Amino acid sequence: MSIRARLTLWLCAILLGVIALMGGGILLTQWTLATREASNQIALIEGSLKRTASDALLQADDLLLVGNIKFLESQYPPLAFAEIRWKRPPADQTITVGFPPQGAAISRRLTVKDPFSPSKSITIAFQIARAALDSKATQSVKRIAKMTLFSGTAAFIFFVVFAFEFAKSLTAPLGSLATLAEEIGRGRFGRKLPWRSRDEIGRFVEAFNAMSERLATLDESKKNFVSSVTHELRSPLGAIESFMPLIEGALDDPSTAARSSLRVYLDRVRDNIHRLRLFVEDLLTSAAIERGSMTCLLAPMSIPGISRDILNLFQAKAENLEVTLREEMPSGLPLVMGDADKLRHVVVNLVHNALKYTPAGGTVTIAAAREGEHVWLSVSDTGTGIDAEDISKLFKLFSKGRNSDRTQDGSQGTGLGLYIVKSIIEKHGGEVRVRSEPRAGTTIGFSLKITAIKQEGAAREAPHSGQGGLS
Ligand SMILES: Nc1ncnc2c1ncn2[C@@H]1O[C@H](COP(=O)(O)OP(=O)(O)OP(=O)(O)O)[C@@H](O)[C@H]1O
Ligand SMILES: [Mg+2]
To answer: Are 37 and 57 in contact (CB under 8 A)?
Structure first.
């Protein structure tokens, strides 16, 4: 049986119980009142008969007695029959008034003695018709029973509809969730339930929707990952493989031309090995980030030191691509708190991106500037820029922009670089900002907190340079 049917049944059963208890209670109370009223009536009749008998004894008038009893008979319809036995020596007299009732009757007997002559007494045996006595009480109980039944039935019908709708509203999302779960089980991710409520079910649906969306993202990531990894591994390996016969040929040739060609081939092989190393490093770092096991060991460090390392690392590649690689470091920058290795990785990714998307003749600049308690380090280029719609998703795992197939060095990338950048900077408590204009260039920068420790020559530190303000 479905939860909806079960819930409806339970609610109806509860209502039925409540109606039965209330109706039963009302009827019982009414019945008790009616029984008490009947006893009062009998007591009233008995009292009146007693008074009549005692008056008749005092006045020694049997006609008065019969007349009064007839009057009482018309006064109290339940008093159906009375047999009066007048004991007065020498002879007793018996008179009857009315007729014994048909059906159930209550029989009573009373004796009244003459206070002045104890040998004289009147005994009245009377019968009260139960039907006449009960009729008023029964009618009122019946009326109440009818009313209870009517209002109970109306309330029950209303409640069945209400209970059904209520159960439906509670269980409706469960059925849809079951269908959605089946779809997810079949590998179709990303669909969401349009259910909005602030209760527990609303929160459950929200969590389920978030899960479906996350699974869709992961699925998308997995697909992107497989195709990107295949490309990123195959293309440098293919390049290295194709240089091998050329290198072997140049090794056998002692001429000067062959020597200089050999150098070029080896440079290319080294470039491709470097590319492979960066890729594997990115893969390992992003795996550590996903596992939550990436740690940053923060220590006071100098920004210009990192900038110089990166310039040295990429100078040859920039020259090959005919791009000017330069730095703008104001003198006397304060030390920042950071993990030097991780931050080097960040800047490597940013410069690598900038070189990939900057055509020959362009410029890539590593700049730093102090802003309050932070130093902003940014990498700017005069390259293709990023499409406005892409900017918000670029920091997600395996997310690439639509310009990713128009790189200067032919590598398509895997969409790991900016994800790693953001994760590392967040671990430092910093912020990443992007400013990009299609066909004009891109600036990606991040902030690092200045440490209180002063480096040598800090007294000569320059004030704000005013650069690095990113949107
Ligand atoms: N300087 C830039 N100029 C233009 N587009 C950029 C620049 N930097 C990043 N992008 C865009 O952002 C996307 C994501 O960059 P990210 O570094 O995360 O991945 P990737 O460079 O494609 O691959 P990977 O860094 O893993 O080799 C790129 O695919 C590209 O579309
Ligand atoms: Mg990159």
So the answer is: no
Indicate whether 388 belongs to any domain: yes
pLDDT tens readout for residues 63-93: 888 888 888 888 888 888 999 998 887 778 8
Digit-coded pLDDT (tens) for 220-256: 878 877 877 888 888 889 999 999 999 999 988 888 8
Tally the domains of the chain.
Answer: 3
Nearest-atom number in ligand 1 for the CA of 385 is 4
Q: Whose CA is nearest to atom 25 of ligand 1?
A: 417
Do 366 and 328 form a contact (C-beta atoms < 8 A)? yes
Q: Is the pTM of this model over 0.90?
A: no
Q: Distance, CA 417 to ligand 1 centroid (Å)? A: 7
* The pair of three-digit structure tokens given for residue 13, joined into one six-digit string: 């059963």
In this structure, is residue 177 part of a structural domain? no
Ligand nearest to the CA of 416: 1
Contacting residues for 429 by C-beta, under 8 A, at least 6 apart: 449
126: number of Cβ within 10 Å: 25
Between the CA of 375 and the centroid of ligand 2 the distance, in Å, is 23
DSSP string of 130-171, one letter each residue: HHHHHHHHHHHHHHHHHHHHHHHHHHHHHHHHHHHHHHHHHH
193 Cα to the center of ligand 2, angstroms: 35
Measured distance CA(357)–CA(204) in Å, rounded? 44
Domain end, chosen from 237, 271, 289, is at 289
